[in-house]
Amino acid sequence: MGEVLARIKIMPEGAEINLEELKKKIEEGMPQGAKLQRVSEEPVAFGLKALVADVIVDDAEGGTDKIEDFISSLDGVSSIQIVSLTRLL
Q1: What is the separation of C-alpha 45 from the centre of its chain, rounded to a whole number of angstroms?
Q2: CATH code, 67
Q3: What does DSSP assign to residue 34?
Q4: How far apart are CA 51 and CA 59, in angstroms?
Q5: How many Cβ atoms from other residues are within 10 Å of residue 19's Cβ?
Q6: Mean of the pLDDT values across residues 42-47?
Q7: For residue 52, what are the domain limits?
Q8: Residue 88: which pLDDT band, with cuts at 50, 70 and 90?
Q9: Given 32, 45, 69, 77, which residue has the most CB atoms within 10 angstroms?
């Protein structure tokens, strides 16, 4: 079975959310089998920034479900979106 790189855009509830704390929660709580490659900030509008996380997961049905559920459950997260999935060789 192969692996895929999932790029996930994480929208905070507002500009007042501490993105450094949110990054730390994501890094520390990543589900088993998922490998966090990086987390970066991306400007959205009017001072609001989103986090963009690159995560490697198994190429299986529902491979990102655990990650989506975990990140969505964190305090301060408004929504998440899978921006891209790329198969790794």
Answers
A1: 19
A2: 3.30.70.60
A3: -
A4: 23
A5: 16
A6: 92
A7: 3-88
A8: very high
A9: 77
Burial class of residue 8 in the structure, from the number of CB atoms within 10 Å of its CB (0-12 exposed, 13-18 middle, 19+ buried): buried
Handedness of CA 58, 34, 38, 48 (dihedral sign): positive
Distance, in Å, from the CA atom of 39 to the CA atom of 51, rounded to the nearest integer, reads: 7
The residue-averaged pLDDT of 54-78 equals 93
> Six-digit token pair at 31?
């589900």
DSSP 8-state code for residue 89:
-
Q: How far out from the chain centre does Cα 1 lie?
A: 22
Going through the chain in order, the beta strands assigned E by DSSP cover 3-12, 35-45, 48-58, 77-88
Intra-chain end-to-end CA distance of the chain, in Å:
11
Looking at the structure of the chain, the number of domains it has is 1
Global pTM reads 0.91
Q: How far is CA 48 from CA 10, 14, 55, 63, 68, in A?
A: 12, 7, 23, 29, 21
